[in-house]
Design a protein that fits this description.
This protein has 238 residues and is an alpha/beta fold. It has one domain: Rossmann fold, CATH 3.40.50.300. It contains 7 helices and 10 strands. Strand 4 and strand 5 form a beta hairpin. The protein is globular, with a radius of gyration of 18 Å.
């Protein structure tokens, strides 16, 4: 169970009037134009929108990979806008887990060591790193693949390793950016079943996707267009 995400009362994410404007010379390009929403602990949310809608910019802001031009963002009760670069990096490591379309695994490193990498950066000792990484590999169904390198794993297995790595620090929020984009339809189905299982065990998940099939297990869909939230719908899960 995701005990770390329950450290603070209230929403795990609270965004208010978020604006992000990029400058190219004298030209200002608005990517987000006043986005506001809360995310409760244990929710499974899909953020959807066409290319250029602002959903990737929003994901970068939620993931503390970028800063808004204006507006406020509280992550697990912490006002992210007040943090310096070092504190922001620490928050990313402690509070957020990332899963990307491209897996981003270390090619010469086995699954166990790939999963344990965030614990290394967090200063956890080697025995505890290996214990927690092995347990997380078991949670994603790869307990028997700990010594395999990425080249010895299928695409779906590599993405499971990436999910285990994202979760090993017990983050407040799991962020998944088009996580099935490089996978075939059957493997995508298996990964979506895993995300649903993780959510039902208490994990908070935000998934950015353009694909309705990928989003169908989410209990809430936030639709972004032209830098604005144009719909925020809760639904019955299939």
């Amino acid at each position: 169970m995701n005990n770390g995400a329950r450290a603070v009362d209230g929403p795990v994410i609270a965004m208010r009037d978020i604006v992000k404007t990029y400058k190219t010379g004298t030209l200002e390009v608005p990517a987000l134009r006043g986005v506001s929403f809360d995310l409760a602990r244990g929710e499974y949310v899909a953020i959807m929108g066409p290319s250029g809608s602002g959903k990737s910019t929003l994901m970068n802001l939620i993931g503390c990979l970028d800063r808004p031009t204006s507006g406020t963002y509280h992550l697990d009760g912490i006002d992210v806008g007040t943090l310096g670069d070092d504190a922001l990096a620490a928050i990313r490591l402690k509070k957020l887990g990332f899963v990307f379309q491209g897996f981003n695994l270390l090619a010469r490193t086995n699954a166990l060591k790939n999963v344990a990498l965030p614990l290394f950066y967090a200063g956890v000792g080697v025995r505890e790193r290996d214990r927690r990484a092995a347990a997380m590999l078991g949670e994603v169904g790869l307990g028997d693949r700990a010594t395999h390198k990425p080249s010895e794993l299928s695409g779906g297995q590599q993405q499971r390793v990436a999910i285990a790595r994202a979760l090993v620090n017990d983050p407040a929020v799991l962020l998944a950016d088009e996580p099935t984009g490089n996978l075939d339809s059957q493997t995508s189905e298996e990964l979506m079943a895993l995300f649903l299982q993780l959510n039902r065990s208490g994990r908070t998940i935000i998934m950015v996707t353009h694909d309705p099939e990928t989003a169908r297990n989410a209990e809430r869909v936030i639709r972004v267009r032209d830098g604005l939230v144009v719909a925020d719908e809760s639904k019955m899960r299939i």
